[in-house]
Amino acid sequence: MTTELPLLATPADGVPPLVDTPAEFSSACAELAQGSGPIAIDAERASGIRYGQRAFLVQLRRANAGTYLLDSEVLADLSPLNDAFAGAEWVIHSVTQDLPCLQERGMQPEVLFDTELAARMLGWEKFGLAAVAERTLGVRLAKEHSAADWSKRPLPKEWLNYAALDVEVLLPIRDILHEALIEADKWEFARQEFEHLLDFQPKHFTEPWRRTHGLTKLKSRKDIAKVRELWTSRDEMAAESDIAPSRILRDRDLVALAQSRVQSSDDIMATWPKLSRANSGRLYRAFRKATRLTTEELPARKEMHATQSRSPFSHTDIKDRVSALKAAMAELSEEHTIPHDVLLQPAIVKALGAQSRVNVEEFLFERGARRWQVELSAPVLRSTLESLPRA
């Protein structure tokens, strides 16, 4: 019978008060500056509830300073923390998730340690914060508030308790993972990845409306145009009201509306009664706009990408070459116990498959691969390419 791990229920120093005035924030910055060592950082958003991905609460913890919970929506500009941290290491679980919303508040790290990425580089199959805490510290974290509406004010004390615990575990987890990376001869790999993350920016889509779930089922350019206009209208309404677009109309409803034969805003309200009359009217105007577009104004069925150099290989040959490269990388991934997408981005492997007589190292570096990735991957990729038929 497996013994259940103890639940980490309350912060060691109690639940700190919410910092939500300029004076309190100034005091927090001074106290954090007097602390020592790395800073544990977390952020809580209101995904699926509010528009965008901004941080509504930022949690900080540092040795000899304690834990601080900042009302980042009220304080807005958190850039004074950059001077308070003075180049110290930031410890974050999943930098790609939290760094953009921290940067939006004016925060910019100089040194990073990503506990999620560290766990993945060690080959751990479970790398969420709760799973990593269990494996490293032998404790359970309650995660029932992870999807809460963090824009709510006042924040319930049990939510603040949850938020404080997330940063309380990060620093000891960081130390254990650091030692594990050194023992596995992967610390230099991780260090390069953490340095690379300093410049991380979320992927920008030139046509974000094409991310609409279910769009690929549409074959008619006219229907695709309707989704584009409806998506744009929904996004504008969501931004104005500061609510998540899905709370106005879900993606699948946009696609269904694009395929419908509605004749008025009343028809839209009859099918989606939760919509206000004003929103129904705006959506119908978007729908009508799309129906009046000329053939030249209709969007292409597929997203247009930047022009790429023509490959000397056929589509079938490229597919076979990419499959061979992926198989080789899968073996390398298993050998080093590093996930294949961490070992080398799949998009780079795919692009390499279309090349002929290419300098593999230069190709990888040009596409952003880190030195450790090139050193491990290039010999295997080069050998695989040499075994394949030439153009």
TrEMBL record:
It is an enzyme of class 3 (hydrolase). One of its GO terms (molecular function) is 3'-5' exonuclease activity. SMART domains: 35EXOc (SM00474). GO terms for biological process: nucleobase-containing compound metabolic process. The keyword Cell inner membrane does not apply. PANTHER family: RIBONUCLEASE D. This is Ribonuclease D. It comes from Brevibacterium aurantiacum.
